[in-house]
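Handout for the seminar on molecular recognition.
Each group receives one record of this type.
Step one: identify the two inputs.
Step two: read the structure output and locate the region that could contact heme C.
Step three: write two sentences on what you found, then compare them with the reference statements printed after the record.
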Amino acid sequence: MSYKGFTREFGALLVAAGLTGMMVYAHAAEVAIQLPPEVNSFKQDVGAEIANAQCLICHSVEYITTQPKMLRPFWKAGVQKMQQKYGAPISDAQVEPLVDYLVKNYGVVTNAPGAVSPGTASQASADSGKNPADGPGIATKYGCLVCHNVSAKVIGPAYRDIAAKYKTDAEARSKIAEQVRKGGSGKWGPVLMPPFPQVSEGETAILAQWILGLK
Ligand code: HEC
Ligand code: HEC
């Protein structure tokens, strides 16, 4: 579906380029990355009317389209944040249809890390105590590494940079635990980290210990 959308847009781009009489044929690859101005409305689908009416009051559609393709809890938390923290006038009855729409059009329904069988990895880490060496395994299990890398910024900050930021902060562990449990944005930029309430306290402690120990 998105592939079809892409070819259509690409076709429109070529037509537009042709109409303006640009000498595109010699530089087709360069022209192709000059995207047309973003249209300030949501993709047509069930629920788009709610998003168009409710989400463009305060900001442009890019706030939604530039988010990583995320699961339902991310979008639900996002909509509730807009509603509760920023005072977006969304009625409670609109929340679920709106989240359905956002997940379908700008998110994903399932992803591989979430599909890992829940029992085994947490069992193993619970049994082995608080060993930071388990950090990478837990981070993989919950999909943290989709957005984070140890040494480079991806969607979220590099874990090494987080360790550096918290080097002298005695509350680092509880702040990291809070970030994992509740998600959030604004500490490193506008992109929202989704909440991970499914990560156990023990696993969170291991993750925090591992991240803070990175140099
Ligand atoms: C009442 C104003 C308002 C409305 C209405 C609103 N937002 Fe926001 N939104 C904000 C503010 C303020 C920010 C934070 C801006 C910043 O950090 O630059 C934001 C940021 C965002 C972000 C970026 C991530 C984040 O949490 O900072 C997303 C995603 C988002 N909004 C989605 C939505 C969606 C979906 C809707 C429709 C349900 C919506 N917004 C409606 C005020 C609003
Ligand atoms: C969808 C992408 C995404 C996923 C998945 C994700 N994060 Fe993040 N993470 C972010 C973003 C974006 C930020 C920056 C948020 C901000 O600016 O406040 C962040 C920030 C953080 C921080 C820094 C908090 C601080 O206080 O400065 C930690 C620690 C963290 N993430 C750990 C994790 C762990 C552990 C997981 C897996 C359980 C995880 N993240 C999964 C995107 C993600």
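Reference statements: The pocket of heme C (ligand 2) is lined by residues 68, 70, 139, 142-144, 146-148, 155-157, 162, 175-176, 179-180, 184-189, 191, 193-194, 196, 199, 207, 211 (CB under 6 Å). The chain has two domains: 48-106, 118-212.
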